[in-house]
Amino acid sequence: MLRELPAVFTYSQARALGVPERELYWLRDKGFIESIARGMYRRHDLDPANIDLVEVVLRAPAATLCLTTALARHQLTDAIPASIDVALPRGQRHPSTIAPVSWRSFDSATFEIGRDIEPLDDDVGIGIYGPERSIIDAFRLRHLEGPELGNDALRRWLRRRGSSPARLLAMARRFPRAERPLHAALEILL
């Protein structure tokens, strides 16, 4: 029965797969599964570093790592965010989580631009903005994040093989608040 359960699952998912309530609690009490949030469990074979991210994506399937969190995962900043920066399309409810999350609401019309899926385990993946989109968002939201974040990320990105300022500017055209300052920064750095 344990092998049929996803690496992270909810009480409802386990019941839908035919796990009796008594057996679910027995698995928990014997240490085969662990409660990670209210009504949410994980098998012990899940990488513990991803538990917070799995909780986020199970509570909000459209969740997408953004800003400092995405830049750190792309190794474009040394900043260590105090909480996980997660974007949802504007109008979607920001669920409460045990994980420390800073929820952001991004425009639904541009939400999918530069968005990829990063696998967390065999069953679950979380959205993440690619390096170009993350840099654009750092420039677009520099009034909240500070100008250093975007400038530092852009400098690091330009040193990478295959970085294309033309492609970055083409994507930035979809974000009017970012295009002008990003263009100015590129003129200085190039």
Describe this structure in words.
The structure is a single chain. This protein has helices at 11-16, 21-29, 51-59, 67-73, 131-140, 142-145, 147-158, 165-172, 176-189, and strands at residues 8-10, 33-37, 40-43, 64-65, 84-89, 101-106, 115-119, 125-129. It folds into two domains: 2-46; 51-189, no CATH class. Helix content is 42%, strand content 19%. It has 190 residues and is of the alpha/beta class. The strands form two sheets. It has a five-stranded mixed beta sheet. It is elongated and about 65 Å long. The protein contains nine helices and eight strands. The protein starts with 7 loop residues before the first strand and ends with a helix. The mean pLDDT is 92. 33% of the residues are buried.
List the helices and strands and how they pair.
Elements (H helix, E strand, L loop, with lengths): L7 E3 H6 L4 H9 L3 E5 L2 E4 L7 H9 L4 E2 L1 H7 L10 E6 L11 E6 L8 E5 L5 E5 L1 H10 L1 H4 L1 H12 L6 H8 L3 H14 L1
Helix pairs in contact: 4-5, 5-7, 5-9
Find the structural class using helix and strand composition: alpha/beta
What is the H/E string? Answer: EHHEEHEHEEEEHHHHH
Number of domains: 2
Main beta sheet strand tally, sense and closure: 5 strands, mixed
Helix content: 40-55%
Overall average pLDDT:
92
Continuous helix count: 9
Any idea what the radius of gyration is? 19 Å
Give the terminus-to-terminus CA distance.
58 Å
Coarse morphology: elongated
Spatial arrangement of strands, main beta sheet: 6-5-4-8-7
User: Strand portion, in percent?
Assistant: 15-25%
Number of strands: 8
- Low-pLDDT parts are none
